[in-house]
Amino acid sequence: MKLSSPVSELSLVGSYYQKKLSKLGIVTALDLINHIPHRYIDFSQTFFISKVKVGDILTVKGKVKSVKNQYTRTVRKIQVAEIEDSTGSISAVWFNQPYLINTLNKGDTVSLSGKIDWFGRKVAFISPEYEKNVTGKIGLHTGRLVPIYPETSGLSSKWLRGRMKEAIIQTSNEIEEILPNEVLKKYDLVELKDSYYFVHFPENFKQAEDGRKRLAFDELLYLHIASLKRKLAWQKNDSTFDLKIDKKAVHTFIKNLSFKLTNSQEKIVDEIFSDFSKKYPMNRLLEGDVGSGKTVVAAIGAFISFINGYQTVFMAPTQILAQQHYNTLKELFDPYKARISLLTSGQVKKDLGKEDIFVGTHSLINKNALFDKVSLVVIDEQQKFGVNQREKLVKKARNKKISPHVLNLTATPIPRTVALTLYGDLDLSILDELPPKRLPITTWLVPPTKRQGAYKWIQKNIQDNKIQVYIVCPLIEESQKETMQTVKSAKSEFEKLKKVFPNLSLDLMHGKLKSKEKENIIERFKKGKTDILVSTPVVEVGIDVGNATIMVIEAAERFGLSSLHQLRGRVGRGTKKSYCLLFTESKSEKVVTRLSAMQKNLNGFELAELDLKLRGPGEVFGIKQHGFPELKIASWQDIGLIKKTKKVALDVIKSPKKYKELLKEINTRNKFTN
Question: FRET label pair with 618: which of 117, 258, 611, 662, CA 20 to 30 Å apart?
Answer without folding.
Answer: 662
